[in-house]
Amino acid sequence: MNAIIVSALWGVLMMYAGFVSKGKQNNILAVVGIVALLVANWLEYLGLSFFKIDTGGMLVYNTFGLLFNEVILFATLIYFLLSGNELGKSNSTPSDLYALIFFILSGIAILAGFRSLLMLFIGIEIVSIPLYVLAGSAKTNLKANEAALKYFLMGSFSTGLMLMGIAFLYGDAGTFFLDGVNAGLGVITPMKGIGLVLLLASMSFKVSAAPFHFWTPDVYDGSPTVFTSFMATIVKSAGFFAFLKLFESAFGSIQESWQTLMAVIAVLTLVIGNITAVFQQSVKRMLSYSSIAQAGFMLLGVFALNVFAKQGMILYFAAYSLATIAIFAVLAKLKDDSIVSFHGFARQQPVVAFALLISFLSLAGIPLTAGFFAKYFMLLAVLKDASMLWLLVVAILCAAVSVYYYFRVIQAMYFKESANGQEHELPDFSTSFKVIMVINAVLILALGIHPDWLTNLL
Amino acid sequence: MFAAFDNFPALLIWLPLAGGLLSFFIKSDKGAKANAMIFSLLSLGVMLGALAYTESKHFMLNQVSYVWLPGIGSSFGLILDGLTRILALLTVIIFPIVFLLVPSGRYHHANRFYGLMLLTQCGLLGVFMATDALVFYLFWELALIPVYFLSSTWGGEKRIRATFKFFIYTFLGSLFLLLGILYMYLKTGTGSFGLVAFYNVQLSELEQFVLFGLFFIAFAIKMPIFPFHTWQPEAYEEAPTPVTMVLSGIMVKMGLFGVLRWLLPMFPLAVKAFNTPIIIVIVAGMVYASFIAIYQDSIKRLIAYSSIAHIGLMAAGAFTLKDSAIHGMTLQMFSHGINIVALWIVADLVERQTGVTRISQLGGIAKKAPTLTIFLVIAAFANIALPLTNAFVGELMIFNGLFQFKPWIAALAGLSIILSAVYTLNMVKNVFYGETVAATAGFSDINKVQVLALGILTALIFVVGVYPDPFFKLIHETVGLIVNKYVTI
Amino acid sequence: MSKFVFLIPLLPLIGFLINGLGRNFLSKTLSGMIGSGVLVASFVLSILVFREVSAAGFSTQIINLFDFIKVAGLNIPFAFQIDQLSALFLLIITGIGSLIHIYSTAYMHEESSPHFARYFAYLNLFVFSMLLLVMGANFIVMFIGWEGVGLCSYLLIGYWFGNNNYNNAAKKAFVMNRIGDLGFLLAIFWMLSQFGSITYADVFAKASTAPVTVLTGIAILLFIGAMGKSAQIPLFTWLPDAMAGPTPVSALIHAATMVTAGIYMIARSNAIYSLAPVAQHLVAIVGLATALLAATIAIKQNDIKKVLAYSTVSQLGLMFLALGVGAYTSGVFHVMTHAFFKALLFLGAGSVIHAMHHEQDILKMGGLRSKLPITHITFLIGCIAIAGLPPFAGFFSKDEILAAAHDMNPIYYVLGVITSLMTAFYMFRLYFLTFSGSFRGTEEQALHVHESPFSMTFPLLILAILSIAGGWIGIPAVFAENAHWLSNFLQPVVPERHVHHHIPHNMELMLMGVVVALVLVMIVIAAKKFAKSDLGEPNEPTGFGKILANKWYVDELYDFIVVKPVNFLASFFSRVVDNSIIDGLVNGIGRGVQFSARQMRLLQSGQIGSYVLIMTVSIILFFIFQLLWKA
Amino acid sequence: MHITEILFWMLTALALFSALMVVSSDNPVHSVLWLILVFIAITGHYILMNAQFLAIVNMIVYAGAIMVLFLFVIMFMNLNKESEPQKSVWLRLAAVVSGGSLLLILVAALKDNTGYINSMKGEGSIGLIKNLGKTLFTEYVVPFEISSILFLSAMVGAVVLGKKENSSPAA
Amino acid sequence: MPIIPVNYYIFLAVALFAIGIVGVLTRRNAIIIFMCIELMLNAVNILLVAFSKMHHVAAYALDKTTTVGTEAQLFVFFIMVVAAAEVTVGLAIIVMLYRNIHSVDINFLNRLKH
Asked: Which residues of chain C does D108 touch, with a Cβ-Cβ cutoff of 8 Å?
């Protein structure tokens, strides 16, 4: 609850700050806001919430939700610290964009605690609508326009699907509360079935799971890199949290009936995401496919819905977001996002290269990085109850494939020299940037060596 | 986390790790080399100390366990039992020798080179000492990653592709291993990764078969045994020689070690069900690899294929489940490490001076470098298991076990003995004997340092070959445990 | 005494180490003295041992040095066994070894000092291994020595490693020995699994308990080992090539000692063979066949050393015949006498070659009688001895073998006789071509031909004496009852099966007479043919002679049925199977991924319409799955 | 046949027909007008079901405000006369088929669904503004407030997108 | 008292929904597509109202003062709210695009693919 209100207020604040403040100040203001949010949310995690509001049980915050929110907020902090300047460079008023981001955060905070389909709907819309704008915020850039329109049209289409689903669920249960939907002793009436499928589809769309993933590469590729970073990490994590929450609380009792579907979706997502990523020449586009691939792994968590799944999800959010944000932050500073532009990176920028290296290793799930334990938990979760070994084998093969395209970038950075000798000049990274990158890398390693630090908070 | 200082296994991990990390901050090449030498020698000292203590029965000092991830149920457990001792000994012996022979200025960014090497050592020792499946897996990978960077950075022309193939291949294998470990972990019930807990898991026959498959693939790729071997020749050829030495001398033992430490004790039913076909395939692979070795014109590839054959013999020995064979292959792991490293050193010295690895372009080195030739001949004959060299003892016992298992298999495997003589002597003849050629005209004999290094290895060759008894005493206890598990069922 | 026995092999080892490590510092004389000295020393020790052994009431001694392998149910001590058989071989090896070392100091004198030292190091190492072979108290130690001598023969054949033909010969020798060794190894494993031990005492004690098939198998495998070492069919072709080594080496290794290891082994394990008649027959037949084959080839050879080499093979064949027919003593007896005269002949040949400046073709010699008096006379003695004229050494041993063969099967006897007649023929062909007639070499050779120094002629003389008298320790019963000292001596180790008492003495005497007469005839024919002063043009051998000259084309045959297939397989496996099939599969997977990646990208058409369509269709499918299937 | 049923069928027919026209008519302006007709028909249904508040809101917000907005935009882009190019026949066919099958499946799944509705002055008039308002500002006040965030962000978004280009970042 | 089975409303809603989807699939004009999406939303609305009515009737039989069904109608209200917001942003995006490429034909939106 704290998070929603604080972020909403801060959003308004940022909105008006635009009139007075200049670029840099916005960044500072935003960072301050995030820190405030972190504190507020942490206090609520410790049991101290500022406001006592009766939501009629539509919003209930438990440790899981708050921890998730904390992780997301922290990721956003890193995101602001690394990409704040890029955001300032975009040709719209940065304060407005910050405001939108804060509104999105409040939407995410809603998703962190929704217990009613209404709240799910509103939360998702609060997250989505500003995103349409952010995607198109580079107004003169045709790619950005295209991305924005595609995102908007398909997004509202999926909203339509979701609403239809909700309607049928209501028709079946006569209430919008998740528990109410979940009641009914695991019998599946046709209406419930339809609602389930429609919600499955729309949520899959939000988390870009195959075969509803098609918008992802285009939108991620077209949008300004700064916002791609935000969409691909923080928003996606939120989507996944909502997905997990919804299916745990609303359809937990009929898990068997949809697990097969979920498995199919997961496999499709893994295969399509990984395989397609192999051939990409643009790192940005490769990463958008890789985000699909990672989604495939997270779907395993939704598939399993047990204690391991929850721990894993939290860990996965942290690992995936930190790594991806770092990579995108560097990408945003490069001239072109083709893989060639990484040649000889390590020689010119050893520190940044090292941080990137850690991030890529983490994405590839190499041990001693957070990414490893993230995948570890997912495998464990699936292995625990439903012993669908084939699913895991697919996951493993895909993980091996993912190593291929992640390491292509590492090879470019470390073992390849820029062609025809001459250096393509890299941007000069500020010291503060390097420091944050290193801290980020250290965090990833820390989580990789001792995941308990995070999972024990659950 | 540092417990008492008489805590050998811990030290064996922390020393190389500390040295490796430290090395990245040393600017001068000389300093980096000195650093590497110091830390590798320190770990050698610790190892010897450990052996001394074990003789005096302070066994507890060779087994430690730290709280690591209670939430997950994994604890940082290390042990120095028989199996580990002999392999850890091999590791800590090889590394100083490898460092000793790296000429200064051979590799740019020497500090990174040595740092990664030390990290590799840390990983290897960890793999051998871990008593916790998760720790084992982590070290398994930790040993792999630095090697990837070493080879890709300092290797030959086709290094990136070859190394990448090697990396993905083994990484895929290790993922299967991870899957198996996780399954076992869930089956323990107590949610523990402990070795003992794993040993006590009760598994149905089907489960054993599946898990056996998962573990076996990982180990088979790592060893590698036919038909998972194709990454090896390329990787050996392209990697910088110090790395190749580590790869072929120690890292391939990880697979064999895995078989002894994890596979055999955990899945007896599956092993009993599959060992005959597996052995047949392996032995066929040995002969196959020996044939290929005859055809090779590159010294490195020749050694690589001969290594495949020898590893195959050890693996086959392990799967016979015969007491003598397992004792033999355990000792042979040590011996093979010594021999092949000696061979690589010679090959490297030749390449360094002539810049050629093609057998057909070499010849007559014996005239120019008698000392080198003597060492080469010793290493070569050790490689083909001549009596009173170390390999003879091990292979004798392995063959004995194979014969007890199935005489005709032993006979088939025997072919590789003959073939190994053929290709090894071919190599010796064409590279070292005969008249000098253009490439070798200006060849000069080896210097004191190289003599020292090769001398140590040669000494080991003969010590083990003539008086293997102490080494058997070292491993007997542990190997006995493995074998007895099969005596009972 | 027995506590010093370990010195016998140790001294040569020390010599090896000193010469090997100090090869750059030692002067030739010094290394020569060390090399020979250690051997003389161990010869002295051997004599002491022999005296002790031959003393009455001696029982076999086992000297345990240390546990070689004592784990996993194996118990293999590194132990020596001193008994009559090993004592005898000790004498032969160290004795002849010493002589040849002394001989070498002169023969090898042209070598530069490091190589000189290397040569003696190798020789010492060889003697060390050979001693292990004969002194070992179990088959493992024997095997250690067995492969050790193989190694040394490899090193010594390829001693002049500058020449690749020599290296090839060396390699051939080692590989062929390896083939045999594999048999030996398998036999060892079989014995281990059958008897649980490979100590002679245990194995021979338990031999009678094992089923005959097993014993036969073991015996045959052992014999395969012997084939390799002692150059029997089919593994004999390496020995003639081995003549690439320095001549003293040929004398020591490829005539006197190493090649007789096979005979030693079988004689040692006579307990097994006596229980496995099938294997025995095999041994006899192979031996006889080898003897004949080699003898025929020897007739047509013109290289002095090649002739001797084939004669060695042939003689070894006879020894195996002896073993095969159960006359182990006779085999060992012939080993001894053969060691004497064959060493003598080789050293003589060496002296000739030395004099002729490394000319080995006997067609380019002749008339050396006057120029090399000592060499000539000793060589003649050697020829007589090997031809088997009484009372020279060869006569007694060979006669004994023939008699035994006759016992077993008259055909054996006949073939044996034929062999020995051929032996007489080619040996004297060799003798006459070399020493009688007129000198056929070049002028400047003629100038330099000179008698060898004393250090070379001295061994010749000693060996000549032995070749004459060496046989008298085995006077057959025909001439004097129980005069056969050797068989009595070996009785404890090699129980004699009283072969002689089956055929009446007069008959035996008659046979002896006939053989001797025929031998003399042969010699005369040889003299007629080759003793003329001018041979006319050395015409190309034709027809059968051509086949013989080309050694029955055995090498070509092997090349065709073994070498070529192996190389083909090697390249086939390497290029086709490994690179194309297996690795192709591995890389194919990678390429498959790449390809499917390229295809899957096309799904991403960029058209909202198609995206939504796919979404809708998949939703429909989900519905069908969820509702209609479940219902 | 009761008057309400007749009304029901008429409205349904109207809604479906004009919906089809929305989809099929070439001229965008026409589609807009047809869509308004659909909304009117739906409003009628709301009234039939005695949900007056929604009926009014639907009329004002949708048929009124939103559609006017649409119309305005279309006019602004003067797409009114040019008839847009069609997609390929196959694509359209696929679209119709999939839409139809979707309909088919849903109907098949739901046909034997029980429950009924009595219309017009039904019991307990929950659809009246009074009742709805009460609940809205008691139980549903939180979502109501939260939706203000939505509007804020929409507003800011519109500003961000609509504002003319300005090179300097700060406003 | 005339009663209408809720099925009729369901079918009506589903039909409208399907038509909307078909529209989205067939048309190329972004605005029309957007309108079809609005059509889908309305289908949802009518469905929700129908359900609310259905549940209300069921509950009313037991308790005359029941407010069951209110939530659905309020949900419809929120849908309209959101729709309004969506339309603002959506039209803004479309206009922006039109400014740049002077077309709203989605078939021309294929710079981003593969």
From this structure: 628
User: Comparing D130 with A119, which gets the higher pLDDT?
Assistant: A119
SS3 at position A124: helix
pLDDT category, A197, cuts 50, 70, 90? very high
Instruction: Convert the pLDDT of each residue in D115-137 to its tens digit.
Output: 666 655 556 577 788 888 888 99
CA distance D126 to E52: 9
Average pLDDT, chain A: 91
Residue bearing tokens 């805590």 = B7
Half-sphere exposure of B79 (CA within 13 A, CB side): 15
Establish if C179 touches chain B: CB-CB under 8 angstroms.
yes
Q: Which residues of A touch E75 (CB under 8 A)?
A: 118, 121, 166, 170, 176
Complex ipTM? 0.91
**Bond prior to B265 in cis (omega within 30° of 0):** no
Q: Are D51 and E49 in contact (CB under 8 A)?
A: yes
> A88 to chain D nearest CA, in Å?
7
What's the whole-number mean pLDDT along residues C327-339?
91
- Write the DSSP symbol of residue C575: I
- Coil, strand or helix at C474: helix
3-state secondary structure of B356: coil
Give the ranges where A207-306 is alpha helix by DSSP (H).
215-222, 225-230, 236-249, 255-278, 283-304
The two structure tokens encoding residue C55: 């003393």
| Pairwise CB contact (< 8 Å): B69 & A456 | no
| CA dist E11 → B421, D34, D102, D105, E88 (Å) | 85, 20, 12, 11, 30
Mean local confidence (pLDDT), E27-34: 91
Q: Which of C86, C88, C92, C101 is nearest to C12 (CA)?
A: C101
Distance between CA atoms of residues C82 and C50, nearest Å: 9
E9–chain D Cβ distance below 8 A for any pair: yes
Q: Which residue in C84, C490, C499, C207 sits closest to C325, CA to CA?
A: C499
CB burial string C178-203: b at 16+ within 10 A, e below: bbbbbbbbbbbbbbbebbebbbbeeb
Distance CA(C400)–CA(B124), nearest Å, equals: 67
User: B65 — phi, psi (to 5°)?
Assistant: -155, 120
Query: With the C-alpha atoms ordered C532, C534, C536, C541, is the resulting torsion angle positive or negative?
Result: positive
Range B24-44 average pLDDT? 92
Nearest CA to C573 among B284, B411, B219?
Answer: B284
What pTM value is reported for the model?
Answer: 0.92
What's the rounded Cα separation, in Å, for the pair A220 and A288?
A: 6
Q: Do chains E and A touch (3 or more CB pairs under 8 A)?
A: yes
- Model confidence at D169: pLDDT above 60: no
Q: Which two tokens stand for residue A80?
A: 């602001």
